[in-house]
Design a protein that fits this description.
Blueprint: E1 2-6, E2 10-11, E3 17-18, E4 21-28, E5 38-42, H1 51-54, E6 71-75, H2 107-121, E7 128-132, H3 134-145, E8 153-156, H4 164-178, H5 192-206, H6 209-216, H7 228-243, H8 246-257, H9 269-274, E9 280-285, H10 293-302, E10 306-311, H11 319-322, H12 324-337
Parallel strand pairs: 5-6, 5-7, 7-8, 8-9, 9-10
Antiparallel strand pairs: 1-4, 2-3, 4-6
Helix pairs in contact: 2-3, 4-5, 4-8, 5-7
Family: Belongs to the AB hydrolase superfamily. MetX family.
Active site: 133, 288, 317
Domain AB hydrolase-1: 38-320
């Protein structure tokens, strides 16, 4: 991982100015201006800047998106807790971490940070911009903001606007965090129990009924407590608490709620999609209840040069991280033809 210290800072959509901006990023391969095929990967909610780790099977040596063929870039998003400026960063005004004082930001603010890094790296063309889930939100916004820079787009398990369903889920998660007695306290463990509950809510949307039935059912018909599904959900909550922070999670879900391509552009949602002129591969997952197929079909209908692939998976929304063999097959074929 590398770190860009950008001393000019960043003015957010809200008008608030961050006087200093750190951007954590990871690259694979070698970059030569004018010749390298750049693949920029935008990550989702709680991931980091290393796609070879969290998108293993698709990104890295011996996989489709490999450093022998491509110069691969992934930046940790604004407001995360993996190196880029966020709630755990020091506030220059106080010398102490921001914690709950970190300002709200949007998907477009995340993309503006990506643009700063892109210019710093000397990249003048992105061969493929890829993103799943919230990573797709960033990719779609960047297509609108710099259409000449981006030549091809790959979107999976994502949508052109946060749905009422998604906003309701995020609201429930934030209510869980806010119910933690330590919420808004200025220390590293603030809101940890609330974050654990928020993750539990999230897990119910990342998979579906069939997935839990297949993997978490108890063969012991005499049980009255200590069920596998219960321990699994608790484990997932505790696992996230060990590696993430409640303030970042709360703000990131707020940023997701801000996602609407048509916002501020004086167009309808359909017209906003029609402005995307790059070839776009859209993949949807049949069992995805968080960002269902209707969202990807909607994009296919309105983006002029879009191809839609629907893949079967038992893993719901998490299928975009797990079904790398299917994804690689379809993405590889599409890249050969585009």
């Amino acid at each position: 991982m590398a770190l860009l210290h950008y001393t000019e800072g960043l003015t957010l959509e809200s008008g608030i100015h961050l006087s200093h901006l750190d951007i954590a990023y990871t690259t694979y391969g070698h970059f030569t201006a004018g010749t390298s095929k750049v693949v920029w990967i935008c990550h989702a909610l709680t991931a980091d800047s290393d796609p070879a780790e969290w998108w293993k099977g698709l990104v890295g040596e011996d996989y489709l998106i490999n450093p022998d063929t491509y110069f691969i870039v992934c930046a940790n998003i604004l407001g995360s807790c993996y190196g880029t400026t966020g709630p755990l960063s020091n506030n220059p005004a106080t010398g102490n971490p921001y914690y709950s004082d970190f300002p709200a930001y949007t998907i477009r603010d995340m993309v503006r940070a990506h643009q700063i890094l892109c210019r710093h790296l000397g990249i003048q063309e992105i061969y493929l911009l890829a993103g799943g889930s919230m990573g797709g939100y960033q990719a779609l916004e960047w297509c609108m903001m710099e259409p000449e820079l981006i030549k091809r787009v790959f979107l999976i398990a994502t949508s052109p606007a946060e749905s009422a369903w998604g906003i309701a889920i995020h609201t429930a998660q934030r209510l869980a965090i806010e119910a933690d007695p330590g919420w808004k306290e200025h220390h590293a463990a603030a809101g940890a129990n609330g974050l654990k509950a928020a993750r539990a809510i999230g897990m119910l949307t990342y998979r579906d009924y069939a997935a839990f039935l297949a993997s978490q059912s108890d063969p012991d018909t005499e049980k009255t407590d200590g069920f596998r599904a219960e321990s699994y959900i608790i484990y997932q909550g505790e696992k996230l608490v060990r590696r993430f922070h409640a303030y970042s999670y709360w703000l990131l879900t707020k940023a997701m709620d801000s996602h609407q391509l048509a916002r501020g552009r004086n167009v309808t949602p359909e017209q906003a999609l029609q402005l995307i002129r790059q070839p776009v591969l859209v993949i949807g997952i049949t069992s995805d209840m968080l960002c269902p197929l209707r969202e990807q079909r909607y994009m296919k209908e309105h983006i002029p040069d879009a191809k839609l692939i629907e893949i079967d998976s038992l893993f719901g929304h998490d299928g975009f991280l797990i079904e790398t063999a299917q994804i690689s097959h379809h993405l590889g074929e599409w890249l050969r033809n585009n």
